[in-house]
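Notes from the pairing session

We agreed to fold both candidates in a single pass and log them together. This is the raw record for the first candidate, unedited. Please don't reformat it; downstream parsing expects exactly this layout.

Candidate A
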Amino acid sequence: MSIKDLPAGLVDSVKELLLYQEGMNEGKYLKYSDLLLQKARLLNDKDEDGKGLKPDSPQVKKLDKKIEKEMKKLGIEEDDQSAYQKFFKAALKKFGVSSPAELKGDKEKEFYNYIEKNWTKDESLDEAKKGKYKSPKTNKIVQDTTKILKREKKAGFDTKEIEQFLKEFKKGIETEMYDEMEILSKRSIKLMDKLFMGMETMPREEIGQIIDKHDPELFDMMFGY
């Protein structure tokens, strides 16, 4: 899934980016959002062999440097980056699209005005209304994840991250609200990243699949973008 491996996909992506850039240069976060979308495509697009670029590939590292430069310009801290990605994806969902390129005219301008209004340097996610996300499929997710926990324990693997995830999940994962848009709080993003990265590969992927199967909305909040 390299850009050079997918010339047709690259052409489509470039066209898509140019479409929503046109006439929107006044958007304070436009370039930053643009770079994040480019990175997401690099990591998510697959080539004919079903492979994609790794985070430490030269192309992604080059893009990361541009992102870091733009973050400094906007005053975005490192810890805010993942939160902003979640926020931007949630905003796309709120507008019923998967990319700003799908928005035309006034709707496109409304989208970026929404980004400007609800995410600024001086008004961070810390000031948003806090909540707890309780999955409508809590019992199913707990039941399936507990099976994995028992299996891993029986095999002698360290299961403290799985146990901690179940504990956090049962009591409700902390979220933040913007109008009707709900995203994970910075605390939750950090915690979930830490717990899942601490798990063995197989149970981590299996638990991700369980969440995706029973609660796609939660999966998007946790792993989307």
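Candidate B (folded immediately after A)
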Amino acid sequence: MKKTLIYAVVALGVFIPVFALAQTSTTGLLNVYVQVINQTNSSYGPGNFTVAVSGQSPNPSTFQGSIQGTLVTINPGAYSVTLTNPSAFTVNYSVGCDSTIAAGGTQTCVITVNPGAYNYNPSYIYPYTYQTPPLTCRTDTPIVAVGQPARFTAIGGAGGTYNWRTPYNNFPNTGPVLTTALEGSGVQSVTVTNASQTATCNVTVSSSYYPQPVSTVYPTYQQTYPNYNTYPVYQAQPTYTAYAYPRLPNTGLQPVQSAQLAFALVLLLSAAIAAYPYARKSFAIAVR
């Protein structure tokens, strides 16, 4: 308790002089807040804007915006608060940003900046024009025998369909790969056209060239498998059979304890034994 009182006295000793310096009986106190909302794709904050206060000797008269607020002492009279560098941002002012203040009075001004409406106009736009890659032709089989299929591949171009031409045939509207057999010997040229570009492939067709046979023997791989010598043993689950146990008839009465039920049965049995001689005599008289 004693420490609490000491802390309270210290706090009052610190804040009362500050408040007395900030506001006197002959001046007013204006608190200016700057908030920036909708900051999607924007790095702007309150500190990017400068606030200007006009009126009767405001102090300070210009300062950087702050979301925590900035205290301004000002003499009584009319005043107004504005941003000096709003650029193309949308700025909204609360009622307390353009008003009057009395001696010893307080006012609050809230400035809201919305950069979402800001239009960035670059001074120079870099042009970009798509360039179609050059069309080239690649000979996948540089040397073939007469009558042996040769393979050609078109690379680049605008894509889509390709038109091929050999010394013997035309292959319009085909893909980027052509496989065809060439007749005659010597160096032969194959052209491919795509859009406005044309490329040429050269292939040597030899009458004395015999292609090497393709091996049909494939390597064998020794596959190893994990040794599963043990298998998990599953225990058979017990089988449950529902049985119908005899139940006492439902009399609609509240359930009783087993001891009470046994006592009642004993009483009934004793009454039956005691009444048996009388019942026997009555039966014999009725038979006569």
